Amino acid sequence: MRLWTFQSVEAVKILDKTGVLHAPWARYSNQSGWKKAYQWMHGQLTERGISAPETAPIWAWHSCGKAGQAPRLSDARNLLSDLELEAGIQTVELECPDELVLLSNYGPWNEVLDLFLDHGDEAVVTPQLTEAVFSVSPSHLDEFESIQAVLPFLEKAWVKDIRPLPLQPGVLDYDRNKPV
Hints:
With about 180 residues, this protein is of the alpha+beta class. It has helices spanning about 10-20, 35-45, 75-80, 80-85, 105-120, 125-135, and strands at about 1-10, 20, 60-65, 90-95, 100-105, 145-150, 155, 160-165.
């Protein structure tokens, strides 16, 4: 499956050196609603039969704006801080095994995230919301504005291209059909 992920320059160096990238839980505070939401998503990986190490999920994009469209600078600006962007972000294009990917609908995922940010350990994700998060299938991709993906890890062998994320609009809007 073709995906794109935003990674720091340091993460790309680790991937290049070790051949595998994991997201350590240590980067998130134990009291953080973010960590609790990511732990929920990690649980969803394992519930759906995807073998996941005890690390945070690797976040990626399947579709931004339309089916199969790569993310743009505007997508990165919505997700990352100015400090992260200024330190250098790489867009990693990858082709990974379908069986390691959990796709989800970005809008309902944000509702789950808000629950954990607002309520921490007391957050309750209803079965209906869980269904909305994961109601993504290849035959319905055009119905969703943004389809995100989580992976248990990222392997260097899956990488098709690495591009620096420019800090000005228009530069990242590359042609997906152009050979890498």
